Amino acid sequence: MTTIRQRRVGKGTEAAEDQPSEETNVKPDGKIPPDPPGGRLWNILSITIGGIVAISLGLVTSVYVATLHENDLWFSNIKEVEREISFRTECGLYYSYYKQMIEAASIQQGLHGLVYDNKTESVRTINILERMNVYQEVFLSILYRILPIQQYLEPVYFYIYTLFGLQAVYVIALYVTSWLLSGTWLSGLLAACWYITNRVDTTRVEFTIPLRENWALPFFAVQIAAITYLLRAHLQPAQERLTLMAVFIATFLFSLTWQFNQFMMLIQALALFILDCLDMLPTAKVTWLYIIQISGLLLVCVLQFFNSMILGSLVISFNVSVLIARTIQKNLKKGGLLNRLGKLILHILLVLCLTLLINKFIKKILNLESDEHIFKFLKAKFGFGATRDFDANLYLCEEAFGLLPLNTFSRLSSTLLFYVYGFVLFLLTVAAVIVAFRNLSGSNRVQLKEKMEEYTVTLKPDAAYSLVHTVLFGCLALSTMRMKYLWTSHMCVFASFGLCSTEVWKLMLKCLHLYTSHRTQVIKYSIPMITLLYISFKFWPGIMDELSELREFYDPDTVELMNWIKSNTPSTAVFAGSMQLLAGVKLCTGRTLTNHPHYEDKNLRERTKQIYQIYAKRSPGDVYGILRSFGTDYVILEDSICYERRHSRGCRLRDLLDVANGHIMDGLGENEPDLKPSSYPRFCEEIKKNLPSYTMHFTRVFQNKTFHVYKLAKHK
């Protein structure tokens, strides 16, 4: 069991920031008059100061999380095997491919080893570049090999510093998005400060460094910043082309680095679809964004050797369906309210039917079943029938895939973030409803322009996108805790934008009949500055205390196991065990595995369920036969799984296996009526008694307080 213990002392080692409004100073021909010389100079000064602040905050965040990581593990002082063990579960698996590329005799041999890999899954040769999103490890390993830094920087530090450096990109992107939305870099400063002070809920990079989301989310934030700029009015053609290129590059990099990219982009496509239907975004720009999503995913598909899971993704089917439906219904945005509502309902139904048909057709042609476990999980999670499916229940019983805990909101409220977010969300939702109704009622565009001054409520396209984006990703986070990092980071942007937005305060003051231009400006700057002062005074001492707390990595049992494997087993030995542990075995020892934590493959899921019979009620002969069918030489049993207490009855791994096998569960409590007692005791418990029926197949060769390793006999 990995723990963090207290470290023993040992030998050691503002200027004005407003940007020109999008709705003002526009000539009748649509051109924007040039700024006076003084105004242009002021803007340049403001942008320069804002940019310096953005870069500074990004670097501070990067150093902050790097220091926390060092202080928590004493990473610079622990052994190489301990450093590798600290990359837990799937993190260790991903890092192992970086290590494999670094240690290869040449870059070509390293790539060949990934394309024709026979050590990740025994008795199978798989293409790692097709199955997993590890191009970032490949790129980083090549960069490390060709740069003259080997004498000054260890490979592991080059890797983790790159990830911590991406946090700087992440914070800068959030800062810029908020700045673009509000028109003042004070908003970006507030967003960055909220991101840092709510670190527990906005990132987990300091303890899950190689996790795919830590690579992907910075690029997703850059993409959102580019989309926010794209949706501004009066862009020059060259500006629009450059922005579209930035959106494409960010979308491509995001898709390349995370296997869940398709689900995030589906939610983003839904946001664009909703806003386009309500006539709140320019249709031409929305079309470009659909095309960029499709082309970005197809390019990733090619790089991943035509990964069928990407081709069968819902987002590609949905985007194609929307584009087809548009060509069929050309007069969608004409007519009165009832006429448009009728067309809209038909449009939604058409898109939905086309999406399902196209997706079903693609999956049928490709015989695609890689993502079926996700839909089984969603079906069970949202109450569409109970399931005994092992894979679905494995997800359902994990806290990370459960509902967002309520204490998250108390933490976010302590920094005032959630209160401000709720306030801004309410105001902009009301504004969006009013604007959507006005758009659907079919007001003449000329009359609309003439009456614009009469309207209290307006909503710019970039603000409308940000609103729907935060609502949809908020729903995702509420339903699945692991996805909260997509929501909370944007929450910082959205709340800071609202607090610094002229439009938000203008709307509120007009509703209260207190509006004056001067009062709006005073509130727009004073409230954010007071909030920043409050955050600084309340949380600065806690951050300093956190940075001064020194601990060290401590997991002697796992270290002992890894050292024993390296010293006492052949390099070709095949190991079976839990997915999480085997990822560490591959990284630390280079031995061949039977299964691993990258779960997006049907054959691997079935294999894992079979391997996990070591924790079920099965006969020694059955377990031996299963393990040998996968070429297993050694099996590792963990007491923490065999005698698990972390989960309640019904969610322990042994319970999931019992139910899937049709056996009643251990302990007091109800069982489903058709479950029956097993004819055999639990394998992981009974094998320790050294009974003849077990010793004829298994010989214990290693044991400590946590792990038991058995060597399989090789019967003729």
Automatic annotation (TrEMBL):
Residues 1-37 are annotated as: Disordered. The chain crosses the membrane at residues 41-66, 179-197, 217-235, 242-258, 264-281, 312-329, 341-362, 416-441, 462-479, 485-505, 525-543. The keyword Membrane applies. One of its GO terms (molecular function) is mannosyltransferase activity. Residues 1-10 have a biased composition (Basic residues). Keywords: Glycosyltransferase, Membrane, Transferase, Transmembrane, Transmembrane helix. It is found in: Membrane. InterPro entries: Dpy-19/Dpy-19-like (IPR018732), Dpy19L3 (IPR047465). One of its GO terms (cellular component) is nuclear inner membrane. It is a multi-pass membrane protein. Belongs to the dpy-19 family. This is D19L3 mannosyltransferase. The gene is Dpy19l3.
